[in-house]
């Protein structure tokens, strides 16, 4: 277990203090000579339970320990609370050994004494009287996030939202440009990669840590969430523009579904435009052209040209935190300026839509300020557009005059918003 704990500590250290991404660090350090499932579980578990672990640890320390010391304590507290199979003496001993052989040597006796206390203590939840703290600790989300939810939704909705656990499997789309659905599924069976069906025939829920190591399947699939696929399935027409396109998930699927269309995929950052190009080439899609362009600036060449404009705008990303706990661990997210940017992008891109054409506006957040509010402001300013209901393909979503919001506990997907705005004049 020493190697596993050491690796988990190093990866978490990079994620917490050096801005690394957990998934990338895990892939980089993969080894089948150790129990890699345990490493993965600890890395994601500690990040996911961060707030709860902080609260637990605070009961055993008088003042804030050095940050790496706290990380070792968090790993110990996580094992104590979630991994019953590892005996107390074993993880306390191994974590103290890691400290002894690192820069944390001067803190070894503190770490040893605190871990011993943690290992024999039970977790006590805060009183529900302080509801912000109660929800924050119970569901291990930062207080600012809980406050934000309680300011926008009623309490029982927030509790259902926070308590829902999404599948641990990853939703991947099968790339029918490079394989057939039946070939892909039989290969998964042959390789003994665990999967379950999706609501869509060209997608599956799969054990991604195994899939990603099968280099022979490279290009035959792509991780893509259900709402993201729904965005692309709602698009169509001869000329399609995706104005905030990188890394290209939706544009590439639209191009796949509409092989006779021409898709223009833009992003404001040159390095991200490259990502679209690489992705489209890896997926074997040819009907996409890319362009570096700022979606807030008017491009006269695009005026009245498109049947469909996809606006998957920059957003707070709060709908995907269950899958990416790294989003919440470091800072309070600041997104006050996003609705203004989102409205600016919508207003500008409306000029590119042909009469009879439409915009698909989407975000991966559930905050009304970035969703309905932006759409309603847009409709007030653009009287020639109206809402048309988004087709959710039988996936449950909350409907607001045709605008759809996906919530984990209602839709069994990440949180997401989609609106369809048709230019009728
Ligand atoms: C939510 S992501 C798009 C994801 C993409 N649609 C997909 O499915 O893979 C938003 C993108 O908008 C880009 N972006 C941010 N500000 C922009 C702007 N002013 N103009 C164009 N793109 C912008 C970001 O670089 C980012 O790639």
Name a few traits of the molecule.
425 residues; alpha/beta; N-utilizing Substance Protein B Homolog, Chain A; nine-stranded mixed sheet; four-stranded antiparallel sheet; 13 strands; binds S-adenosylmethionine
Topology diagram in text:
Blueprint: H1 2-18, H2 22-28, H3 36-48, H4 50-58, H5 67-82, H6 88-100, H7 108-119, H8 131-138, H9 143-152, H10 155-163, E1 170-174, H11 181-190, E2 195-197, E3 203-206, H12 208-211, E4 221-223, H13 226-233, E5 239-242, H14 249-257, E6 262-267, H15 270-283, E7 288-292, E8 306-312, H16 326-329, H17 338-350, E9 353-363, H18 372-381, E10 385-388, E11 398-400, E12 403-406, H19 408-411, E13 416-423
Parallel strand pairs: 5-6, 5-8, 6-7, 8-9
Antiparallel strand pairs: 1-3, 1-4, 2-3, 9-13, 10-13, 11-12, 12-13
Helix pairs in contact: 1-3, 1-5, 4-5, 5-6, 5-7, 6-7, 8-9, 13-14, 17-18
Distance between the termini: 67 Å
Total helical elements: 19
Mean pLDDT: 94
Sketch the major β-sheet: 9 strands, mixed
Shape: globular
Q: List cofactors, ions and other ligands.
A: S-adenosylmethionine
Q: In the CATH hierarchy, what is the architecture of the largest domain at level 2? A: 3-Layer(aba) Sandwich
Radius of gyration: 24 Å
Proportion in β-strands? 15-25%
Q: Under CATH, the topology of the largest domain is which?
A: Rossmann fold
Briefly note the structural class of the backbone: alpha/beta
Quaternary status of these chains?
single chain
Number of domains: 4
Number of strands: 13
Instruction: Supply the CATH superfamily name of the largest domain.
Output: Vaccinia Virus protein VP39
Helix content: 40-55%
Q: In terms of per-residue confidence, which ranges show pLDDT below 50 for 5 or more consecutive residues?
A: none
């Amino acid at each position: 277990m020493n190697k596993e704990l050491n690796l988990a500590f190093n990866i978490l250290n990079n994620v917490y203090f050096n801005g690394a991404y957990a998934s990338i660090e895990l892939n980089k350090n993969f080894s089948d000579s150790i129990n890699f499932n345990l490493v993965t579980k600890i890395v994601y578990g500690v990040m996911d339970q961060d707030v709860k672990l902080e609260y637990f640890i605070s009961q055993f320390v008088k003042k804030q320990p050095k940050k790496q010391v706290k990380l070792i304590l968090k790993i110990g507290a996580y094992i104590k609370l979630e991994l019953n199979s590892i005996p107390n003496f074993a993880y306390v001993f191994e974590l103290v050994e890691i400290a002894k052989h690192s820069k944390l040597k001067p803190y070894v006796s503190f770490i040893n004494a605190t871990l011993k206390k943690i290992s024999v203590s039970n977790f006590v939840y805060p009183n529900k009287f302080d509801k912000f703290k109660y929800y924050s600790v119970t569901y291990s989300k930062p207080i600012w996030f809980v406050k934000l939810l309680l300011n926008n939704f009623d309490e029982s909705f927030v509790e259902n939202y926070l308590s829902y656990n999404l599948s641990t499997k990853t939703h991947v789309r099968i790339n029918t440009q490079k394989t057939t659905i039946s070939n892909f599924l039989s290969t998964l069976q042959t390789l003994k990669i665990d999967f379950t069906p999706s609501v869509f025939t060209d997608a599956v829920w799969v054990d991604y840590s195994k899939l990603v190591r099968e280099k022979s399947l490279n290009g035959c699939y792509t991780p893509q969430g259900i709402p993201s696929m729904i965005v692309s399935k709602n698009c169509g027409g001869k000329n399609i523009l995706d104005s905030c396109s990188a890394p290209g998930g939706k544009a590439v699927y639209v191009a796949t579904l509409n092989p006779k269309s021409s898709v223009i995929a833009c992003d404001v950052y040159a390095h991200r435009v490259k990502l679209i190009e690489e992705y489209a080439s890896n997926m074997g899609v040819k009907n996409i052209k890319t362009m570096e362009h700022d979606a807030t600036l008017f491009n006269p060449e695009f005026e009245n040209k498109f049947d469909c404009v996809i606006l998957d705008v920059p957003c707070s990303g709060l709908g995907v935190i269950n899958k990416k706990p790294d989003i919440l661990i470091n800072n309070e997210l600041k997104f006050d300026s996003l609705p203004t940017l989102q409205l600016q992008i919508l207003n500008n891109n409306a000029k590119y839509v042909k009469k009879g054409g439409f915009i698909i506006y989407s975000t991966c957040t559930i905050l009304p300020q970035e969703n309905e509010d932006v759409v309603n402001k847009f409709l007030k300013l653009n009287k020639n557009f109206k809402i048309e209901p988004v087709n959710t393909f039988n996936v449950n979503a909350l409907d607001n005059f045709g605008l759809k919001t996906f919530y984990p506990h209602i839709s069994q997907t990440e949180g997401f918003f989609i609106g369809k705005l048709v230019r009728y004049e």
